[in-house]
Fold:
Amino acid sequence: MAGFVYRGLNAEGATVEGRITAADETDALRQLESQSIAPFRLTLETPASRKFARKKARPADRHRFIRQLAVLLRAGAPLLDAFETVSSEEPCRDLALEADGVRRDLRAGSRLSVAMKTHMDVLPDYAPRLIELGEATGQVPKALSDIATQMEHELKSAAEIRNALAYPAFLAVAGGVAVVFMFLFIVPRFAALIGDDRTALPALSRIVIGLGVTMRENLPVTLVILLAIVGGIVFLLRSRKSRAAVGRALYGLPVVGSFLRSAEIARWARTCATALSGGAPLLEALILAEGSLQSPRRRQGLAEARRAIRAGEAIDVALRAHTDFDAMTINLVRTGRASASLDEMLAFLADLHEEEARNRAKRLTALAEPMAVLFIASVVGLVVVSLVLAMTSLYDVAL
Structure:
């Protein structure tokens, strides 16, 4: 089935336009005729000719796309029909263009795993391999469903991290705006009252007033610097490499690091469990799971553990020797290995660490809020104290 965009006259002679789904152009004309519409333009809809709700595809859009595709395949729809149905209704331009490329490769006889790896390279690293395993075992719908479930867990984990840091970040931004406002508008007013002779002022007052006057007198330069700082922060948040670098730096912080550690172990366990349940061998599942980690130290430790497993060590022994996983994690992995249910035990382990990450996020938020308020209050208070000292010192001089 394909989409066709039409423009024509209805039975009342009014101009109408719209979109219909048909097997070919003849079928589209037949449908329009049954609706008493005389088309004077009928074109095959392509991603380039469609109107989209937005251009960029978000991770949530890719998750929705994979989930819908899995549902259609589980319902018995042929692969090409299911893919065309989902892609023809896709509201994101980038994702629609990628889907159109996959659809062309499928029509040419390519396998789904190869086509998606070629055109949808933004998908997680484990997605093409799980689809390939599903093709080998005849379980493509299950593979897509497992991928969608894993992506859903990753989206929830990312949302928890954002929510934990959102309010402290808001307080920091609001505090920064308040401080800049004081330096640009309030401090220069005090400077005008004091005059140019500031030799009698305390050192703190001279520094604060001098900084405020400099910022006010060089307002264009100040605005450029502030815009550059804001632009740099936005760039860091938008760049995947920069976000990864910031994430690695946060691992060293006491409270934040423990929260990120729990979230990362949960992500590793979930990815490994998904790969094992999809039919991947243990070593390959470990390789796929390593790609979900951001901490270089933990990734290196898991790589060393994987080499030890290849040399014949048990997975729990290798993890204990080469990683910083806690005793509960190691014991659950050993239990899963001994009972030949490692994938189920890893999924259970992921649930435990996700719950632990949620609890740590609540504690982090509860701790970060007063710390952010205290920091902002300290900066504002420092400015106020410096101005008060300036006024009292002038009063003493006058006496």
The CA atoms of residues 302 and 375 lie 38 Å apart.
